[in-house]
Design brief:
Blueprint: H1 5-20, E1 48-53, H2 72-81, E2 84-89, H3 95-105, E3 111-115, H4 117-125, H5 133-139, H6 143-146, H7 149-154, E4 156-157, E5 160-161, E6 164-165, E7 174-179, H8 180-185, H9 194-208, H10 222-226, H11 228-232, E8 240-243, E9 246-249, H12 254-268, H13 283-288, E10 293-297, H14 298-311, E11 317-320, E12 332-333, E13 340-343, H15 351-361, H16 364-372, E14 380-382, E15 385-387, H17 390-394, H18 408-417, H19 421-424, E16 432-433, H20 444-466, H21 474-500
Parallel strand pairs: 1-2, 1-3, 12-16
Antiparallel strand pairs: 3-13, 4-5, 6-13, 7-10, 7-11, 8-9, 14-15
Helix pairs in contact: 1-3, 12-20, 16-18, 20-21
């Protein structure tokens, strides 16, 4: 999400002027409850804190008299941390506009969420946030084990840290899902290369009379995600590629033309779902067995598998390794690059307390408490193992509101109790490709044009594959792309990349 241009202009002048100018609870937890280590911030005298986080649907899931500031978990957090914390939420709509008003007013929270890389860097450049390097050293020692140095470095402006990326524990998203029962029925082996995939698709087409490979391109960005395993086999599965020490858009490379040529052949031979360009979802086709392969998010794989079992059709699923090309290239684009940030505003009244509280939340014992809740109420311990039912987990869905980013144990625990883990874990072993620009600061010439350039690429990729534009015009497409701001965008990105190396 981005602040609108008019808001940014007004905000810059008002904010800079503003920067120049100088809870009690009725519910109590059992005394025996453990919520992590007691805060080590005894040297911090001011125990009053105001935290403003992003909106989350979990805020609508409190029951009875419970609120974000008064419930069995937050009351324990207050007691054990030693801080009287008041939580507030940014609005669901136009949060960045609200942020501009708050920062310009001078009446700021001690901890604040900033959604979006572009707005974070713009505000940091304007001087809206407290530099965190010294506070991290003195008050947030847990940060170094919570986030890798490379992610922290990517949040820096001119070498200084102004925000903590909200950690994303999810390491993988989509995978290449196969209806393994169809392959078993036809005595076909799992394809491992593009050539083997082509042979397999042809065999299924001939024997089952279906278009075996389905995908969706009905929404912006969907085409690239849906056909990414095949683009990756040509070495162009990320937005940019490193060529001779410089970044280039993958979509303009000769290899991308080769990829489109292959997809056009598969489409013309009926191996690709003829409705892929308008599909918004492929779950039904995987469930019904009218497709044998599709790129599917792990959360959707559970839905597909459950529906197949409900139909009692004997269908089976498995994720397979993304197929490789002639050069051995393969994989999916890596996940988990943060896009939201936790900051301490420059005018915050309790900066040391804010840093110490962040450190407390990042404590492993606190994380365990927020993950599972109260022992005896929300889980039990059996032979040293935590046992939590889906009902118990679902009774405290709002607990994630108090995290400052996911930990791996918390994320995996939530996936396990909801049944997602068997679909998520198999994807971890497959190759992931790094998108270098994810680690760049906000670069306006690139960021402001990226979505338009991606959409233009998808629009023409569909035309090339479906024969509505001749692939002989690929060079003309490259010229059009660059004229739309592609060259200026990649040149600006390379200014950063050349200094990074």
């Amino acid at each position: 999400m981005r602040i609108q241009k008019a808001v940014l202009v007004g905000m810059s002048s008002v904010l800079l002027v503003g920067l120049a100018v100088g809870c009690s609870s009725n519910n109590t937890a059992p005394a025996s409850t453990k919520a992590g280590a007691t805060s080590s911030s005894g040297s911090v005298k001011n125990k009053e804190l105001k935290v403003m986080r992003m909106y989350h649907p979990a805020m609508e899931q409190y029951k009875g008299s419970d609120t974000i500031n008064d419930n069995k978990l937050v009351n324990v957090l207050k007691e054990k941390s030693g801080y009287n914390v008041k939580f507030e939420s940014l609005p669901k709509d136009n949060p960045n506009q609200k942020i501009s008003i708050i920062l310009a007013s001078g009446d700021v929270p001690d901890i604040m969420w900033i959604p979006g890389k572009s707005d974070y860097f713009k505000l940091a450049q304007q001087g809206a946030f407290e530099p965190l390097d010294e506070l991290v050293k003195t008050n947030i020692p847990n940060l170094s084990s919570f986030l890798p140095k490379e992610i922290l470095d990517a949040s820096k402006l001119d070498g200084k840290m102004y925000g903590i990326p909200v950690r994303v524990a999810q390491k993988v998203g989509n995978g290449l899902l196969e209806r393994s029962d169809i392959l078993k029925e036809l005595s076909l082996k799992e394809p491992t290369t593009m050539d083997e995939m082509y042979t397999t698709l042809k065999a299924i087409k001939e024997k089952k009379n279906i278009a075996p490979l389905t995908g969706s391109a009905g929404n912006p960005g969907a085409f690239m995600a849906s056909f990414l395993p095949y683009a990756s086999a040509f070495g162009v599965g990320t937005s940019t590629v490193n060529k001779n020490g410089k970044l280039e858009f993958a979509w303009l490379q000769p290899e991308y033309k080769e990829y489109l040529t292959t997809m056009k052949t598969w489409y013309s031979e009926g191996l690709i779902d003829q409705e892929f360009a308008i599909n918004k979802d492929i779950k039904d086709k995987m469930i019904n067995g009218t497709a044998a392969f599709g790129t599917v998010y792990w959360g959707d794989a559970l839905t597909i598998d459950t529906s197949i079992k409900d139909k009692k059709s004997a269908g089976t699923l498995q994720y397979i390794a993304p197929v490789s090309g002639k050069s051995g290239a393969s994989g999916f684009q890596e996940e988990g690059i943060p896009g939201n940030y936790i900051v301490i505003p420059k005018q915050a009244k309790n900066k040391e307390g804010a840093a110490a509280f962040i450190n407390y939340i990042m404590n492993a014992d606190t994380d365990k408490f927020l993950t599972y809740g109260l022992e005896g109420q929300d889980y039990k311990v059996d032979n040293g193992q935590i046992v939590q039912t889906p009902e118990q987990s679902n009774n405290i869905p709002w607990r994630t509101l108090y995290f400052f980013g996911d930990s791996d144990p918390s994320f995996n625990a939530r996936l396990k109790v909801k049944g997602f883990l068997p679909y998520y874990e198999p994807l971890l072993k497959f190759k992931q490709n790094r998108e270098e620009t994810s680690y760049a600061p906000s670069i306006e010439a690139y960021d402001t044009k990226f979505t338009e350039l991606r959409n233009y690429t998808e629009e023409n990729a569909l035309k090339f594959i479906m024969g509505k534009r001749d692939l002989g015009e690929f060079d003309k497409f490259v010229q059009e792309f660059n004229a739309k701001g592609g060259k200026a965008a990649i040149d600006a990105m390379n200014e950063w990349f050349s200094k990074k190396k």
